[in-house]
Write a structure and sequence with these properties.
203 residues, mainly beta, Immunoglobulin-like, 5-stranded antiparallel beta sheet, 18 strands, elongated
Length: 203
């Protein structure tokens, strides 16, 4: 069994005389199952290009080659709002941005390590049943380990929002009638703003 580990290491803002760093955040990662049906979302996008020599033309790489891509061609990502999205094709996967002088401007990576199933929230904050969701079911049950209202959002592998709402009970249900088959990421945010996610497959 496996658990995804994602890391956006410090973003290097390289200038001629000064350098600074900030940190990008990975919002969620859907591991690839069939081709490039995974998804990686990180940001803020406004920090990707930096200042100084990293504010000018930059070159993008993914390593190993082909581990991430965009449905729109090159570069291997797209931006919505202030979030960067990339389809994951294999793991591990590194995303790199370099300036024309050969300075590394940004470096993020998704790794795989041995641990627990990627279908489980490692913090056990919530669970969904059934998963996968078959064609004979329209409702998915969400079991929360904390009381209070929780906001939820369902994203597909292209980062598109399909459904959102509020879970008001420790055991609640979401109607997914009409949602197309495929891999999704169900994100749940508690009253303190802590956001957790797990993979949901609709068959």
């Amino acid at each position: 069994m496996k658990i995804l580990r994602w890391l956006c290491v410090p973003l290097l803002l390289s200038g001629l005389e000064v350098s600074a760093q900030t940190t990008l955040t990975t919002y969620y990662t859907i591991p690839p199952v069939n081709g490039c049906d995974g998804l990686w979302a990180f940001g803020p996008a406004s920090d990707l290009w930096g200042t100084g020599s990293c504010a000018g033309p930059v070159t993008y790489f993914v390593s190993p080659s082909g581990c991430a891509e965009s449905p729109f061609g090159w570069p291997p990502f797209w931006i919505s709002g202030d979030t960067v999205y990339s389809n994951l094709c294999s793991l591990p996967c590194d995303f790199q941005t370099w300036n024309m002088e050969g300075d590394l401007c940004a470096y993020c990576q998704v790794q795989v390590s041995i641990g627990m199933s990627v279908s489980e929230d490692p913090n056990k904050a919530f669970a969904v049943f059934p998963n996968p969701l078959g064609t004979d079911h329209d409702l998915v049950e969400v079991r929360l380990n904390a009381v209070g209202n929780h906001a939820f959002a369902l994203f597909d592998a292209q980062g598109r929002l399909w459904k959102q709402g509020t879970l008001r009970n420790t055991v609640d249900r979401i109607d997914l009638d009409g949602i197309l088959p495929g891999p999704y990421m169900l994100c749940v945010t508690d009253q303190d703003g802590v956001r957790r996610a797990l993979r949901l497959v609709i068959q």
